[in-house]
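User: I'm designing a mutation panel for Homeostatic response regulator transcription factor HsrA and want to avoid disrupting the core. Could you give me a predicted structure to guide residue selection? Please restate the sequence first so the numbering is unambiguous.

Assistant: Good idea. Sequence first, for numbering, then the predicted structure tokens:
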Amino acid sequence: MRILIVEDEVTLNRTIKEGLEEFGYQADPAESFSDAEYYIGIRNYDLVLADWMLPDGDGIDLINIVKQKSPRTSVVIISAKDDKDSEIKALRAGACDYIKKPFDFDVLVARIEARLRFGGTNVIQVEDLIIDPDEEKIIYREKEVELKGKPFEVLTHLARHRDQIVSKEQLLDAIWEEPELVTPNVIEVAINQIRQKMDKPLNISTIETVRRRGYRFCFPKDK
């Protein structure tokens, strides 16, 4: 599961990131409101952990941005404000939880786990096609499809953004940990594997190439 950490205190941000990664989470660090907006725009998150006070904006305002894109994404506010009114304001704005600084890291992880456990499903279903990102599983007409790794992540990302054209650069930023270290042709390789391992055997078409612009999820579409 992927978590976005929005915290302008660099040391705290790094500590949270490293701690969450030890628990098996993927964590992206953002140190400002604008950085958070960028990441929210290109990636899908299971949870956003956001500080209230940021150098260029209000963490509470991020709640609406997150929910507009993905209503199922949980938002947890962390803040040095320890008064009751601030906590009520955050929860009424749409936050799933409010954690006061300073906090115990084990308690933070437990509360994050609780939010993710009771949050909405990440399963994508389009007619007879079911994509389960948490289990890395694809089922088509009750038959499981053998597609793993980066091709699975590419397919999932495109399915989440169906009806949108997604460029190679956007796919690299969203899926690869260090996109600057790989070449764009890895996207072509992943797309080819989707077509060979899934589309061709099932006689369906899931990914459309839009010349000079990128790719689009096009299922259902007869070949």
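For picking mutation sites, this is relevant: The mean pLDDT is 89. Helices lie at 10-22, 33-42, 59-69, 84-92, 105-117, 149-160, 168-175, 185-202.
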